[in-house]
DNA sequence: CGTCTATTTGAATGTACTCAAAAGCGGTGG
DNA sequence: CCACCGCTTTTGAGTACATTCAAATAGACG
């Protein structure tokens, strides 16, 4: 098991003794998820938060017409999950699946709670993660409410250049909130690159 | 100064000794804000997070066409601010103003950081607040991406019945992401009450 | 009252969607 | 290695939801 990406990420915000680090690592679980396989489905109670170490994961909701709406993409180094379900330990509204063969490191919610009590520094760590997530959501909401589709697309490309390359357009369309047909037309008609 | 609403709110998530409570209270600042007055404007560096004790506050962004897009309403008992600016201490993108004469309790970002170090329980408190904020943003994003305007309105009414009553329709329209004219038509034409 | 802002209403317009069908692309098995 | 199958992308025509602009009406506040 190679937890170096996650540990590196943790050390950016807090420092741990060797002992604390071992304890933290002992709570980690690893799982490989093949393309198109689910980590969570709607109605599941999420086991806990997941940190992507390989591949690309994604969370999305399904509307009553059967359309997918991407809430988040998670390349390596990012966390993913249905926050509602994780926090409240109730059935969630999101699907979480792998866009490419992926590998995640995850913790049980109960272990996470234990971790908070045993090593309060992790309260800080996840407090900071939460702050960053809120900032990201705030930005996305601003874009969604105030920019036309083509600028939302431009912003997506600026923000996630690597994803823009590696994702099917269909997924990007779902993220920025348009149909795949419309995104295709946008990209091909006005300024044909 | 009456901090009871805020303290009550804090005690829902953590317990404090008398001494800790006094220290916390010593960091608090109070400010009255009259209707239409600003707490923060775009480009300001936010002093720190604000907790509403009276009135209704709101945060919004301004797009290049001069239209407002409400990010959040904050009646008493809610926190408000430009999270990006608070966390990074850089110029923000949001305006924060009072919809009605209001009163807030706020902390300097620097005092908040001190508080985290001096009383780590506050790491937990704000970690939990952050979790809840993320859940709220996740829900709003799902609605924005997957529901038609009329259902976003219905959901708003369900979620904030008290606000639906007390806010000008214009504000609600801005929150759900439609023009005031369109909201008016929606409400008057199909099912006339 | 009078002014300023919010709401309503209408007509014209535009952005994005639906449905349908063709073309492209990638992976898989023979 | 090629052929086929399924999925993604493209393209087009018709449509719908929501906006813009304009003007009239109604409310709120001093």
Describe the structure.
2 copies of one chain form a homodimer. Chain A is built from 9 helices and 6 strands. The mean pLDDT of chain A is 95. With 193 residues, chain A is an alpha+beta fold. Helices cover 48% and strands 22% of the residues of chain A. The termini of chain A are far apart. The longest helix of chain A is centred in the last third of the chain and has 26 residues, at 121-146. In chain A, strands 1, 2, 3, 4, 5 and 6 form a 6-stranded antiparallel beta sheet that branches. In chain A, α8 packs across α9 (180-188). Chain A has a domain at 4-120: Sandwich (Jelly Rolls). At the A-B interface, α3 and α5 of A face α3 and α5 of B. Chain A binds a DNA duplex (30 and 30 nucleotides) through α9.
């Amino acid at each position: 098991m190679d937890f170096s990406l996650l540990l590196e990420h943790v050390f950016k915000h807090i420092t741990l003794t060797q002992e604390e680090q071992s304890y933290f690592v002992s709570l980690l679980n690893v799982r490989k998820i093949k393309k198109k396989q689910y980590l969570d489905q709607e109605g599941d109670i999420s086991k806990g938060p997941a940190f992507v170490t390989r591949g690309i994961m994604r969370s999305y909701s399904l509307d009553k017409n059967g359309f997918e709406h991407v809430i988040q993409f998670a390349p390596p180094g990012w966390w993913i999950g249905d926050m509602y379900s994780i926090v409240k330990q109730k059935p969630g509204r999101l699907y979480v699946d792998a866009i490419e063969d992926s590998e995640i490191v995850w913790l049980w919610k109960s272990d996470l709670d234990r971790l908070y009590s045993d090593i309060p520094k992790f309260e800080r760590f996840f407090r900071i993660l939460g702050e960053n997530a809120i900032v990201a959501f705030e930005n996305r909401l601003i874009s969604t409410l105030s920019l036309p589709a083509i600028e939302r697309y431009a912003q997506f490309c600026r923000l996630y250049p690597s994803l823009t390359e590696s994702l099917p357009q269909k997924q990007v369309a779902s993220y920025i909130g348009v149909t795949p047909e419309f995104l295709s037309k946008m990209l091909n008609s006005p300024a044909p690159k």
